[in-house]
Design a protein that fits this description.
There is one protein chain. This protein is an alpha/beta fold. It folds into 3 domains: 79-239, Substrate Binding Domain Of Dnak, Chain:A, Domain 2 (Up-down Bundle); 251-394, Rossmann fold (3-Layer(aba) Sandwich); 410-630, Rossmann fold, CATH 3.40.50. 49% of the residues lie in helices and 9% in strands. The chain has 26 helices and 15 strands. The strands form 4 sheets. It has a 6-stranded parallel β-sheet, sandwiched between helices. Helix 19 (460-471) links the parallel strand 10 and strand 11 (474-478). It is globular and about 65 Å long. The protein starts with 9 loop residues before the first helix and ends with a helix. The protein binds iron/sulfur cluster and Broken Fe4S4 cluster (MSK). Residues 53-56, 58-61, 73-75, 77, 82, 203 line the site of iron/sulfur cluster (SF4).
């Protein structure tokens, strides 16, 4: 371990008991984790408090003056141009990540359709027909193969189209779409928008922050209503649309007497293939011959959430725990694909003799074993990963300390299932949700999503924020590492309704749902967009997404993907609050544009707060304002008076 300054106490950097226990152990073992490095590497003050531009070799230009307008770059670029360009490039990178993930799903779908991929098939034909119909593809009396072929061609346009509107904007409420058309921000195709964003943010091109913001929104919308939505839809078609399932989470799911394999990353294909390999009798025999009682497949981060939603696979924790889990000494192999994979996992794996295996040609890591997953023969890779894990199990030499905590919860809510659960098979729909919002039992809805970050006490803001929201009758939907924070804290069970306000608790108890609904991985934020769209189309809550009493939040975000997600929610009409830091300079015109002016154009707006309770109250205040604008605030007061009257009686 590198020589460290005095280290911060684990109690102060995480609220996750298992991670805390593992940080203590790592320090005893002399193993450095990212928490330690975050302590030793303070954020660069120029980037943190102001801005820097390094888009050409006349710079880099530092804008770290007290008055952000006191200086311009060598080329004359103002602070607004510089922060808008930097922000735009983050959105372009985040959008590229989600759309490339979606493209990989589409590649797999094409292989299934043309018969070159034989290990996967179309599993959910109901979803296939539903997605095809939503894009006006004829489905009546046609074969699955023909519908799928037409759907593939249509969805490919999400990426390759150079003019017009991406296909999935057909799902956007009319008034929301109209505001995009007026602003000229309907995405044409994701590749074009990302390319144009990169071009316009280069030295000497777009130097008007308002004009840059238009391309920022257009690019982000190509993610939410494009790449991410394609990824979710195709994953559902190939692997099944999630429905509620009970899942056990946290590091206590590791088993000392089994071969433990952690799968971490984002694309579901790796874990889906791992499930097949782990069930193979010959592989199982190898494991038992090695003295193991079985093979324990465990997910982490977003691919874990994807497969947890579909198969109820146990999950060991979120982004901040991926090194910590290795410190247990119980992980025989960690295998990864793309995104959010810290490079130092290789080093930490080495310290505990864990086999660390990369599987995707787009994401190799120096020092890792690379076994490429080819979708035409995925088991070749996944069989090999398990064999390596069995080899490590046989020769385990490190002391094993498995944290004992686990929590059970219900996950796997999709927008389709929410529709069904509220109305049953005969009258499935969003009417019960909208009715309960109108009558005030439910105050509004909030999406709480996103990462964890070593610069923010792990899970703390997610959990405190969500508790405050449900206490105030706000129904919460979740994705990504945030979902896992709440799952570990035991808030994804129907019993958590006891922590909710009386109105929300009554609805949850009637339907039998938790007040916190887990929807899956970070690309599955597209499911939240679909919920919003359904709420508008169902009626009674305004004509556009911007009219809805809803808000979003990523309290501990770290990835560029989170910024892209935040911007597509803002452009779609949602007030979106981020916590811990925000990557622009305070007191600039660009800040005012994002945080105030966009709302006047029929979009949502950004918000920021460092404290989770403050975040919750910013969101609740916004929800209440929307209720007033809709004229449904009176209904809420009437319900509360009725309850008080009853109590008095
Ligand atoms: Fe400096 Fe302008 Fe070059 Fe940026 S583009 S590094 S502000 S000279
Ligand atoms: S894994 S993007 S840390 S949610 Fe999707 Fe978690 Fe954020 Fe990665």
């Amino acid at each position: 371990m590198a020589k460290l300054k005095e280290l911060i106490r684990p109690e102060d950097i995480t609220t996750c008991d298992s991670t805390r226990q593992m940080i203590h152990k790592a320090r005893k073992d002399g193993v450095e984790l990212f928490f330690d490095r975050a302590e030793n590497m303070r954020p660069c003050p120029i980037g943190n408090d102001s801005a820097c531009c390094k888009h050409c070799s006349m710079g880099p230009c530092r804008m770290n003056t007290k008055d952000p307008y006191a200086r311009v770059g060598v080329c004359g670029a103002t602070i607004d141009t510089i922060v808008a360009r930097n922000f735009g490039r983050m959105v372009a990178a985040g959008t590229a990540a989600h759309t490339d993930h979606g493209m990989a799903m589409l590649d797999l779908f094409r292989g299934v359709i043309d018969g070159t991929v034989k290990d996967f098939a179309i599993k959910d034909t109901v979803k296939l027909v539903e997605v095809a119909s939503s894009l006006d593809i004829e489905t009546e009396g046609r074969s699955v193969q023909d519908i799928a072929t037409d759907l593939y061609k249509e969805l490919e346009l999400t990426y390759t189209q150079v003019d017009g509107e991406i296909p999935l904007v057909k799902r956007v409420p009319e008034k929301t779409l109209e505001s995009w058309r007026q602003e000229g921000i309907v995405p044409r195709g994701a590749m074009r928008e990302i390319m144009e964003m990169m071009h316009r943010s280069a030295m000497g091109v777009d130097q008007d922050y308002e004009n840059i913001t238009k391309q920022i929104s257009r690019t982000a919308l190509a993610d939410g209503w494009g790449g991410s939505m394609v990824s979710t839809d195709i994953s559902d078609i190939l692997f099944g649309t999630p429905s509620p399932v009970e899942v056990e989470v946290d590091m206590g799911v590791l088993k000392e007497d089994q071969v433990n394999i952690i799968v971490h990353g984002h694309e579901p294909i790796l874990l889906e293939a791992m499930l097949v390999s782990a069930a193979s009798p010959s592989i199982l025999k190898m494991a038992t011959d090695a003295g193991a009682k079985g093979i324990n497949l465990v997910g982490m981060c977003c691919s874990g959430l994807d497969v947890l939603s579909r198969h109820g696979l146990p999950h060991a924790g979120n982004f901040s725990s991926t090194e910590a889990v290795l410190v247990s000494g119980a992980v025989d192999a960690m295998t990864v694909d793309i995104q959010c994979i810290k490079q130092d996992l290789v080093k930490v794996s080495e310290c505990y003799d864990t086999a660390f295996i990369t599987t995707n040609y787009r994401a190799k890591i120096e020092g890792a074993t690379h076994i490429e997953l080819d979708e035409h023969d995925p088991l070749e890779c996944t069989d090999n990963v398990i064999i390596k894990a069995i080899g490590r199990f046989k020769n385990r030499s490190k002391s094993i300390v498995i944290p004992s905590h686990t929590a059970k919860g219900i996950h796997g809510f999709s927008h389709e299932y929410i529709k069904y659960m509220l109305g049953g098979s005969f009258r499935s729909g969003y009417e019960p949700l909208n009715d309960n919002i109108v009558n005030g039992r439910i105050r509004g809805a909030a999406g709480v999503v996103g990462c964890t970050n070593p610069r923010s006490k792990q899970d703390f803001s997610h959990v405190e924020l969500v508790k405050e929201l449900i206490k105030n009758d706000v129904l919460v939907v979740q994705t990504g590492c945030s979902q896992m924070a709440l799952a570990k804290a035991g808030l994804t069970t129907p019993g958590a309704a006891a922590l909710a306000g009386s109105g929300l608790a009554e609805v949850c108890e009637t339907v039998g749902i938790p007040p916190v609904l887990g929807l899956g991985s970070c690309v599955d934020n597209s499911r939240i967009l679909m919920i919003l769209s359904e709420m508008v189309k169902t009626g009674g809550l305004g004509d556009s997404i911007a009219d809805l009493p809803v808000a979003g939040c990523a309290p501990e975000w770290m990835s560029e993907k989170a910024i892209a997600i935040g911007q597509y929610f803002v452009a779609s009409g949602v007030f979106t609050v981020f916590g811990h830091t925000f990557p622009i300079t305070e007191g600039t015109k660009f800040e005012k544009h994002l945080f105030e002016e966009l709302e006047g154009k029929g979009f949502g707006k950004w918000g920021f707060a460092a404290d989770p309770i403050e975040m919750a109250h910013l969101m609740i205040a916004h929800i209440d304002k929307k209720r007033r604008d809709l004229g449904i605030d009176q209904a809420r007061e009437r319900v509360l008076v009725d309850m008080a009257d009853r109590r008095a009686l």
